[in-house]
Design a protein that fits this description.
single chain, 116 residues, mainly alpha, 5 helices, globular
């Protein structure tokens, strides 16, 4: 029971972060355009990435789409890590690692409402 509560908190945190960052990308906030601009993303590319991030966050909430949502979220985070490393930004890549691990832990613990 304690594991389910901890996992629920982790899921809500991951979903909250996904919604926050996805919304900022979808609305093409200047800080997001600046960050993705160093990797030559167009405004439309940032908006599309935001839509995918929002979709991933919503999918995580439901048991049937839980793994797919985590996969999408982890893929986006891994993309950011790779982009940071392409600029030799080890600090930026290291900042993203805990969020990637969060998605992996959440998948390992499984959805708290999953019927087994």
């Amino acid at each position: 029971m304690v594991i389910k509560i901890i996992n629920t908190v982790l899921i809500l945190f991951a979903v909250g972060m996904g919604i926050k960052h996805g919304w900022n990308m979808l609305m093409a906030k200047p800080e997001m355009l600046t960050m993705f601009g160093k990797w030559h993303f167009s405004k439309n590319g940032v908006v599309l990435n935001g839509a995918v991030t929002l979709l991933a966050a919503v999918l995580i909430l439901f048991p049937k789409t839980f793994v797919a949502g985590n996969f999408l979220m982890a893929t986006g985070i891994l993309m950011l890590i790779c982009l940071q490393l392409s600029l030799s930004d080890l600090k930026g890549a290291a900042i993203e690692l805990p969020f990637l691990l969060l998605n992996l832990i959440i998948v390992y613990l499984q959805h708290p409402l999953k019927m087994t």
